[in-house]
Each structure stands twice: as C-alpha cells, then as structure tokens.
Give the backbone structure.
Amino acid sequence: MQTLEKPGHDTHGISPSGAVRIHATGRLHLGFLDPGASLGRRFGSLGLSIGGPATILDLGPAAQDRVAAADHAARQEVPRVSAWLERLKQASGIQRPLAVRLHEVLPAHAGFGSGTQLALALGRAFSELHGLPWSGADIARLLDRGGRSGVGIAAFERGGLLVDSGPRGAGSVPPLAARFDFPADWRIVLLLDTSRTGLHGAAEKQAMQGLPPFPQALSADLCHRVLMQILPAAAEQDFAPFAEGVNHLQQVIGNYFAAAQGGVYSSPAVGHVLDRITRQVGAGAAAVGQSSWGPTGFAIVPSQAAAEQAVAGARAAGLLGPFLEARIVTGANRGAQVMPSARHEAGISKPVACCSAAA
C-alpha cells in the first residue's frame, strides 16, 4: 500500500471539523496519439473538459463510515467509493469515521471518465478536509487511476483543451504536455446512448491486448496535426482547421479501434446522428467523433445556434429517442470546484441508498 504524506497544518482554508463539497465536470477523450509507443511512451491523448454532466459529492465527519447515494446511478458507485475511502485512510494514517454523500455521478462506462473524476473528487475532498498536500497525480496513483491517459487528471485540476504525453511506464501518471482554453463561443453536442456501455474491465483489457501494431508514420501524422493544427486553431479561435484536425484524428483512431468495438462508433445510432450532422452543416463545420470507447459521441460546432440547428435536424429526422439523448454543453476552462458544504452528518446520511463502508 502506497503511503502519502501525513496531515500537518490545514493549508487549504477549510476547517478539519467541517464538511467539503467537490464539483467536478466530465471530460471527452478525443483520441490517442501513439498507441504503438514508437518512442517509448505509449498512447498520449487529446482531451477536453466539458460542462454539463458532473460529479458532486460531500465528505464530512460522521459517527461511522457511511456512503450515501442520491439516485440509482450513484448507488452503483457505493462499493468502490467505500473501498477508495478505506485506501485513503490507510495511506494517510487517518482513521476517524467519515460520511460521503454522492449527489451526482457521471454516466459510467460512457466516455466521460467517470471513474477517474469520482476517485479524484473523493481524494481531493479527503485531502482538503485533513490539510493534506496531495496533488491530483498523487491521488490517481493511490487509487489506480490515469494509467493510460492523463487528460482526466488534468481536466480535474485545470480544465480546458488538454494534451498528455502518455505514461513513462507501468504505475506512472502521464504528464500534461499542453493546455489551452476552449473557445467560449464554441459548443459541444453530446449524444448519449443509454442502451449500451463502452468496453470496460476485462473486455477492455482483452481488446487492448488484441490491437494490431500502430504505424509510426500515423503517430507522427497525428502528433503533427495536434501541434500544428488543432492546438493553434483553438488558441486563435479558428474553427475550420480545428474541426479538420479533430475529424482526421477521430477517423484514424476510429478505424484503428473498429475491430475491437464493432465499427468506428461503438453505437451505430450515435454514428447515424453524427453522419447526419456532418451532412447537414457541411464539411469543416463540425468536429465529430466518439469519446474513448463510447458510446457517447460528440459534435463540436462554432456557436450555440449551430448546436441548436444540429439537434433540431436530428430530432426532425427521427434519429433521437428514449435511448438516444442530445445535450448541448460548453467547454469547461477550470478544474474541479472545492467548497465548504453546509451539510452536517445528519444531512449527509439521509440517502436514497446507504450502506456502511465496511459492508
């Protein structure tokens, strides 16, 4: 068990006797840059922190360890939150009872980085409550997150449009290579297919092991696109080259993973909507793709009006329905918010579902 620095002075401005609330947004994983590790580091990622779906939790003192869930989705996370809480206690040497309330969680296995955001939110709440100087990378290592991609950690800490350089090796956290603000006027249309989940767990590991070699020339091309097209276009709010670069990256990576996930898109329904949006707005007027293993798809467009038109067109064509939802969100250019929570233990432990952390 890894041991991190024990508590000392409270350097974060939140009383150790109070309760802490963390609000963390989701992220989109826009694609890997070098799955073949042609220079030693594997993967490397382009990612984007987004508004909309979020992780919101409270942590505070309690009579006994308890994890409360506000709804069905949060209830599914209770076992691993309980396990993570115990791991944080062991690493810090702090054993006082604590209560967690999960107000909102990101959709699991949908492409938003739900596990990493939840782990980091819990770890940050724990460190803030006890005055521990733990970084996001510290928490990620402790709770076994960020093994392939560092954009979830960077999204939690800083938000924005992000590039990581891939892990140095097993157990290392990928360092952040670049970060830019995402243009405030641009919008993201999220397409959520609630009838399925993306690959995860043992199936994901098996899929990764079965991938063919990734040509070094393709990796060089993708890195060139990110450095010389996507990032400067975002910095200068120049939408057309940004869209061209993201579309190219998504096409290359989608084709690479197609055999493992059943096509360029893991959800055919999401793929149909994105194809329609591309035809509707014209080439270069939308950056479309899938986040991670999906099934969530995205269409990045230059304005709120363009986003509304894209959603209206998909709805008019009968492509949206009870299991396929469209949401319009912005980018998120700041990291997770940390604040005191007004909830005392009584408020934290009034759950829809609740269990002891020892259960």
Notes: The two ends are 21 Å apart (CA to CA). Residues 5-16, 344-359 have pLDDT under 50 and may be disordered. The chain has two domains: 1-181+333-359, 183-330.
